[in-house]
Write a structure and sequence with these properties.
With 417 residues, the protein is mainly β. Helices cover 2% and strands 53% of the residues.
Length: 417
C-alpha cells in the first residue's frame, strides 16, 4: 500500500495536466493511468510509424519502442511499462529499461520494499524476475505468479517433470509443484494452484490436486491430512498463521482451517475468504443456494441475496465488510448487510477509511464516473476517474479524475458527499 501520510491533503481542486493537448503532440494517445497520489498521469503514445513510448504529465520518454503496454504506477509513483523492441521484451521504469531482454515478460507486481517483479519467459523456460534479475532456475512451465507481502520473495506454480503429449501416466504421478525464489519444493502433485505467502513472508500455501478426484492444501510442500472433493485458494491468518481454505464435501462447500472443517459444508459456493487484520474474524463470499450469493462472517451469512457477489472488502478493524452485487447488468454496493439505495452500470471494489467508519467506491452511470461515499454520490461526475483514497485521518477523500480534458486532483472533505 502507498504511504499516503506524505501526500498533499490540502482541500480543493488542482489541475495536474491538460491531457486534451496530448492529441496534438502525438499521433495517438491510449488509455490514461493515474498514480496513487494523483500527482502523475501517464499513457502510451504513438510518436511515429511503428514507434511508441510512454508519456507522463505531458513529457514523453526519450526511448521509442515497437510496442508499449501494461502501464502500472508503483506505490511510490514510478511508472513501469512492458516494452518490445526487435522482437525482445523487457520492463522500463521511468524510461530506464532493465539491462536484459527476454522472450516475453508480463504480470508486473510491486513489493512493499520497492522491488518490481515480473513473470518472464526466456529461451522457452519460465520463471520470475526482480528488478531485472531472474531466478537462477527456470522451468518448462510456470504460472500463478505471486510475491510476498514484504516484496523479498516470489513464487509460482512450476512444472518439474516433462510430460509428452498424451503421457497420462506421468501426469497421474505428478509433475507440478511450487518454486520460491526459483527453488522448487521436493513434493510434486498432479496440479498446483494459487500459491500465497503468510504475513511474515516465510511460509507458502497452495491448492493441490492429489488425484483426478482428490484435492487438499499443501504448506511448504506438506499436505493436509484430509482430502476434499475440491478446494479454493487458501489464506493465512495474519496473527496465528493458521490456514483457511474453502472445501467441498458431499457436493456442498464449507471452510476448513489447518485441515479441520470450521464452517459446515452447507453452501452452494464459498470462496474469496479474508481474515481481519487482527485474525479474529473470517469473511467470505458464499451462496446459500444456486444463484443466491451473499457475504458470510465467521460462517454466518448476511440476509441479502443477489445472483452474483464480487470484490469483497473488509474494514481495517475487521468488524465490517462491503461488496458488490450484480443482477443482470446492474451493479449495487452492499455494506453491513444493507444495500445502498442507488444502482450503477458498473462499480469497483469498495474502499474503507482507515478508521473503518466510512466506505467509498468508484461507480459508472450512463458513461460517466464518480465516487460514492456511504451511498451518497459526490456532486460531480467525470469522463474518467479512479478508485478513491482516504486520508490517514479518514476525514478526506482523494478523487483522481479526467474532467473536460483535464486531469484533476481533488481533495474532498467527507462532508462534501
Amino acid at each position: 500500500m502507498p504511504n499516503a501520510s506524505t501526500w498533499d491533503w490540502n482541500p480543493g481542486r488542482r489541475e495536474v495536466q491538460d491531457v486534451s493537448s496530448w492529441s496534438s503532440k502525438f499521433e495517438r494517445v491510449e488509455e490514461f493511468y493515474a498514480s496513487s497520489d494523483g500527482e502523475k498521469v501517464g499513457a502510451v503514445v504513438k510518436t511515429g510509424e511503428g514507434e511508441f513510448t510512454a508519456c507522463v504529465n505531458g513529457q514523453a520518454w526519450e526511448d521509442r519502442y515497437e510496442r508499449v503496454f501494461y502501464l502500472k504506477f508503483s506505490p511510490d509513483g514510478r511508472l513501469a511499462v512492458i516494452t518490445q523492441q526487435d522482437g525482445e521484451w523487457t520492463l522500463a521504469v521511468d524510461g530506464v529499461s532493465w539491462p536484459e531482454t527476454y522472450g516475453y515478460i508480463w504480470r508486473t507486481m510491486f513489493g512493499a520494499n520497492g522491488s518490481i517483479n515480473c513473470a518472464v519467459q526466456q529461451d522457452g523456460e519460465y520463471g520470475m524476475g526482480t528488478d531485472g534479475v531472474l531466478w537462477e532456475n527456470l522451468f518448462v512451465n510456470a504460472n500463478n505468479f505471486t510475491i510476498s507481502g514484504d516484496g523479498t520473495k516470489t513464487a509460482a506454480v512450476v512444472q518439474v517433470t516433462p510430460i509428452a503429449q498424451a503421457d497420462i501416466e506421468t501426469f497421474d504421478k505428478g509433475a507440478f509443484t511450487i518454486a520460491v525464489n526459483g527453488e522448487a519444493w521436493d513434493s510434486v502433485f498432479m496440479n498446483c494452484y494459487s500459491p500465497v505467502f503468510d504475513a511474515k513472508s516465510e511460509r507458502v500455501a497452495c491448492e493441490v490436486r492429489r488425484t483426478l478426484y482428490d484435492y487438499t492444501i499443501a504448506v511448504d510442500g506438506r499436505i493436509w491430512q484430509r482430502e476434499f472433493q475440491c478446494v479454493w485458494d487458501p489464506c493465512f491468518n495474519p496473527v496465528t498463521g493458521a490456514i483457511a481454505a474453502p472445501v467441498r464435501l458431499g457436493g456442498k462447500w464449507g471452510m476448513a482451517q489447518d485441515g479441520e472443517v470450521i464452517w459446515p459444508a452447507e453452501f452452494a459456493q464459498c470462496w474469496h475468504q479474508q481474515f481481519s487484520a487482527d485474525g479474529k474474524n473470517l469473511w467470505a463470499i458464499v451462496a446459500t443456494s444456486i444463484g443466491k450469493f451473499t457475504v458470510a462472517k465467521n460462517g454466518t451469512p448476511w440476509n441479502i441475496k443477489v445472483p452474483v457477489v464480487l470484490d469483497l472488502a473488509v474494514s481495517p478493524d475487521g468488524n465490517r465488510a462491503a461488496a458488490l452485487g450484480k443482477t443482470d447488468y446492474v451493479y449495487t454496493v452492499s455494506c453491513d448487510d444493507k444495500v445502498w439505495n442507488d444502482s450503477y452500470d458498473m462499480a469497483w471494489k469498495p474502499v474503507f477509511s482507515p478508521d473503518s467508519t466510512k466506505v467509498a467506491a468508484k461507480v459508472e452511470k450512463k458513461g460517466r464516473f464518480t465516487i460514492v461515499l456511504d451511498g451518497k454520490a459526490y456532486g460531480q461526475d467525470f469522463e474518467q476517474c479512479w478508485e478513491p483514497v482516504f486520508s490517514p485521518c479518514s476525514t478526506k477523500v482523494l478523487i483522481r479524475a479526467v474532467d473536460g480534458g483535464k486531469f484533476v486532483r481533488i481533495v474532498a472533505d467527507v462532508s462534501d458527499f
